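Hi,

I'm pasting everything inline rather than attaching a file, because the server keeps stripping attachments. The sequence lines come first, and each chain or strand is labelled.
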Amino acid sequence: MNVTNFVKFEFQSLPENVAFARACVGAFASQIECTLDDIEEIRLVVSEAVSNSIIHGYNNRRGEKVEIMVTIIDHDTLEIIVKDYGKGISNLEQALEPAYSSEPGRMGMGFTFMRSFMDEMEVISQPGEGTSVRLKRNFRVRDESVLA
Amino acid sequence: MRQVGNTLVVRMGGELDMLLSDYLREEIDTRLEQSGVRNLILNLEKVSFIDSSGLGLIIGRYKKLKALGGKIFIVGAHPPVDKILHFSGVNKLVPMYNSEQDIINI
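And the predicted assembly:
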């Protein structure tokens, strides 16, 4: 496993920064050979993870810190880690259920999107300490001659 | 945002994430309450992105209007947005049309 490229950034827990975060990660991910649809899916999962940090991790409290680390591995695999230092998730099993949301105005699709559009999703959360979501996806183009 | 008879037409633009959804939720709900209008058309022609906050905005208005005997429609969703509306199943609850004219014609 070789790291092709890596970027790390942090920002305040402001709704305005959700668009900034997905734009940054989308631009970085475009270094991998992939389609515009793939980039849209990456932008979506970043939007979901960062929104979760702001809304659930920090209860919409402004001025807290969200960190993002993005790694391109072996030119074709993207790993994204979104981390907050908020209240954490007390019942992780329940939070990962499709359509579950602790907020009435939300749809509870965040983790479903992350799981559906990425190959791997790992959520590590400690009540009172925060949550880290690790997402990974491989974009290797299949060699049609091998499949034939 | 404009009112046509008993219908409120909301033409949205940009990226429908938590920032825009929170703003629109307040604007739409205030307008619905003040006007007494019971039908809502959400025109997504100029929306280039939607996440679960945007879906929550649509489903929240759907539930609210359904309880009041009203209806809600989505118009003009482009492929990236249309894909998420179908993936999430929102299209099964909220009828989707190509244009505002299509709804007037039904």
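The domain at 2-105 of chain B is CATH 3.30.750.24 (Transcription Regulator spoIIAA).

If the labels don't parse on your end, tell me and I'll reformat.
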